[in-house]
């Protein structure tokens, strides 16, 4: 019913400063701009945008969107969330630009989520001349890393097993890998798409956002990201990495935007069928090699999180 | 119901010679060997094997396997194929090593196909010590390119529109891109997984196999494949490339095994939701830039195909 | 006495069109522009420019420059060339922008060459703040491939053994590799820097220019060049490759600028001490694997050459 | 007179353990083995070896070798060192396998150095068939990273300005970059080859070895080194990085062999003519961005050094 993570909305305090960082340095494509919002996408996305930057007084997560397989799925999800007794709201087509009707909910763990089916596409689906190239075949116009497409959300929840009752049992997200600590689930990576995760759930004070991840091509682009940031004067934005996660197998660089929102630049995780059993990590092994496959050390600031929109679905 | 392409069986005339090529030069992992068969996989696969090399007098395609989402799907597919009136056969668990019960059919266009659900996994799904690393974290033991995982089959059929009645309309494969020539479909790339294709169908004398594709990491591995082959004395195995396809956006190198079976070494195509409209190419634009984005030239031998097993399901 | 190749001057018929190709698509840095000339460099060069594009009615090679180790070397070279009886001319500092006094000669094989010592540098050699970064640490401002630095010239001469009497015996260029055909030298790669060549000499109608080469980082940039050109509408500029030379071991892509001047995009050759013996190739092995390590085929248009300035030293 | 760094000798306490690390995991080529020594090289070297591992009770630097341009240079250097009054010894051809006559000295700062001209080559300099390929065209036989060739030594000296009187003023090493602290030179990168350094001199208790560096192809190989080590169970060998040096511009990963000898895996520094002025860094900028371009943090253990052979020239 749910296909994949579609987009995230982050709050920033200064749109111009955010644009310089995301568009001019990192190379996001600017799809649309309004007085209070920037709509961005990675260079290989067909959806018009996957990142919304909204001007607010404090940074953090506005909400994120999950694409569903059909318009009818919205009604099914509305009933499901009504039964759960969580705040919800049906919003009409065009509430966000280019997007069809949506269902906005505050999921049981407190994170603001939108379900939607329709989203404007950046391609006409017809190729008859040089002008009709696929979106990714504009490399002469790209800049920055560039980011390819949105990959996942990493969220904090007080009780991961409770959170899985929603994500796994109600929404049918498949757990790819998880960590057990003190007899309970410490963290779980869950997905509807075949990669290791659309939504990661980690035990900590929540609801809270740890990071939004964007996929890049590989090792060279991970290192290029650090270079670009340092070269452009954003040395302080480089938080942790480059490194390889043991859990998920991905290469990473964690960076902070000028408001402190954390973005993971991500490459090389792996697909696995959704019906396969989850992979279980002990806490000790996760702590030793799951977080950073190359060694146990990581910077303390990496444990900080960002707040989430507490007025959703408004 | 169908999840993805799972494996391919190719015929080779000399298993030792094939092993030298696939395992020692290209870096496939040898999962199992019997008197008449080699079972191989790429280095990031959880399934025990994705390529079966079977000793026969003439090369070509033995059959290929599609993984289904549940054991029950086999019965549904059995009814569907019985209604189509094509040859079919239910085979018990273990007919191929590590594989569950399967349905073998000759699909309406003449290609031998197996549907199956269960396949032995190479990981225990439990990570508590260094010995339990994910399959891809054995880089110190890998050799060759190495290939990561099977990606797709490219088949030849006399009438692509007719073939789509089976693949698209009966099996619910989604067309990602297609080419129109003389008012009919010249070629169609179809899939159940989010990438551009699990099965490509191209107009030519069929049933016939054009190639089996394996995914590699990126540009460096595409070039590395040509280097490995030339360095190891397999210069004649390098057929076409490196190049970039306009259709599918993928980087490629086409190579031939010592029996002439064609393997595509493949990287960098893109995912798109299965419910999105197919992308239509005109023949002229496909001929000019769809086959090779960098220019219209390609070697004549690239049009050759391999025969398929005509005794399946036997 | 001679350190390395310093720069090349190419003739183009349309400066704006050339600028679009070299600067906007390929990513050369524009150092200076006059009414009839563009001065360009690669992104890792300290010299202000390494490529001069001069407006002329017909394309081809204007001249190329060799940097010498000291100002005194110019007098030594002047005597040497006077003794050879070739046309020569001493030109004052500033004849080309930022360049010191130079010696212009038509070398015995007919190619126009400048010897010079001084060239403006793009860095102050003092790093005390973020503004003082090394030239290559401006990745946020780079575009295109980008090219890193000039690597070599490939010239055509009627008699390679005769040409070596000048390049090897008079100028002390060291031969890294050479090809023997019909009892004479068919081609020789010669250098003063440790790489495989500053100047290659190949038997054909000469004097003529085959190509000027620019170094890029590696396999990914070779493929990126073909992508950039095809994406930006310069499909016809992609001539030959990507491939690997057996002789020199380098990865290559040969491209043509809008006037037909050939540029080699080049990576991964190797250094060797200048006093080591040259590596000898038989013609048969060169033809089979020296030109293209992956196979003997190459496009016929790859044999075409460009004319050289016949009024130098003017 | 001096061409470049040629080789280094390191002490290890267990040759088998060292072989597993250098040959089986990192991919050095084993050129020769005696009871107490392993002779290794990178995969693109023409010299038979560039790293000697000698069994001793304690790890550290045995000595390192500098290749000179001619046999006659040894006599010139012998006089020079005799005038300096440092311990020296002329050793005959074959004292080390495949090496010509050499001059062994303890340089004025206490490091053991060998000067030599002749070294066996791994290629016959004649290519007439597939068997004669260049050394680097054996990729089907390589394993590990692999390392390409030796790049530089990093040494510790009490007084860098005093050390420069020897390296720069007597041996004519060119300083590429240097750091000034408290009115004196804190560190200097010196070279005879065009790269940023053959020998780096850094202020600390000396004589001491900080690291020996080997060149690899680029970003992907830097990351691959950390992966290989972690995958093969050498997680503790990963000390610092991947990162980019501001000074030298190089990508790096510092690793420790099983005896604690530090090896830098190194890529992407830049060439500059030896007659160009050195690049001066202030201490503050070096500390902020010279060591690690991406930020000021580095692990404390990175300041540790290894002892040097105090019985040379024996």
UniProtKB/TrEMBL annotation, chains A, B, C, D:
Q: Where are the transmembrane segments?
A: none
Among the GO molecular function terms of this UniProt record, one is: ferrous iron binding
Q: Which UniProt keywords apply?
A: Aromatic hydrocarbons catabolism, Dioxygenase, Iron, Metal-binding, Oxidoreductase
User: Which Enzyme Commission numbers does its entry carry?
Assistant: 1.13.11.15
VOC domain location is 4-118, 149-268
Question: What's the top EC group for this one?
Answer: oxidoreductase
Q: Which domain of life is it from?
A: Bacteria
Q: What InterPro entries has UniProt attached to this entry?
A: DHPA_dOase_Mn/Fe, Glyas_Bleomycin-R_OHBP_Dase, Glyas_Fos-R_dOase_dom, VOC_core, Xdiol_ring_cleave_dOase_1/2
**Which cofactors does the annotated protein need, by name?**
Fe(2+)
What family name appears in the similarity comment? Belongs to the extradiol ring-cleavage dioxygenase family.
Designated name of the protein: 3,4-dihydroxyphenylacetate 2,3-dioxygenase
* Gene, per the UniProt record: hpaD
């Amino acid at each position: 019913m749910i296909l994949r993570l579609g987009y995230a909305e982050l709050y920033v305090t200064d749109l111009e400063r955010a644009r310089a960082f995301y568009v001019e340095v990192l190379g996001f494509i600017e799809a649309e701009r309004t007085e209070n919002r920037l709509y961005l996408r990675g260079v290989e996305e067909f959806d018009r945008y996957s990142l919304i930057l909204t001007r607010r007084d404090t940074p953090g997560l506005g909400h994120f969107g999950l694409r569903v397989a059909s318009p009818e799925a919205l009604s099914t999800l509305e009933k499901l969330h009504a039964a759960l007794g969580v705040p919800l709201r049906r919003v009409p087509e065009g509430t966000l630009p280019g997007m069809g009707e949506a269902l906005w909910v505050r999921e049981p763990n407190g994170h603001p989520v939108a379900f939607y089916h329709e989203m404007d596409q950046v391609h006409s689906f017809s190729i008859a001349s040089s002008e009709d190239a696929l979106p990714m075949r504009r490399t002469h116009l790209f800049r920055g890393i560039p980011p390819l497409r949105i990959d996942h959300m990493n969220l904090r929840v007080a009780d991961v097993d409770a959170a899985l009752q929603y994500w796994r049992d109600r929404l049918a997200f498949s757990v790819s890998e998880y960590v057990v600590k003190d007899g309970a689930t410490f963290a779980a990576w869950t997905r509807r798409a075949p990669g290791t995760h659309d939504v990661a759930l980690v035990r900590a004070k929540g609801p809270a956002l740890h990071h939004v991840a964007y996929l890049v091509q590989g090792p060279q682009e991970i290192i290029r990201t650090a270079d670009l940031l340092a070269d452009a004067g954003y040395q302080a934005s480089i938080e942790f990495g480059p490194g390889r996660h043991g859990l998920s197998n991905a290469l990473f660089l964690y960076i902070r935007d000028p408001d402190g929102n954390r973005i993971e630049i991500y490459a090389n995780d792996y697909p696995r069928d959704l019906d396969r059993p989850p992979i279980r990590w002990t806490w000790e092994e996760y702590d030793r090699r799951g977080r950073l496959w190359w060694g146990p050390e990581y910077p303390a600031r990496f444990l900080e999180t960002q707040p989430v929109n507490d007025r959703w679905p408004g």
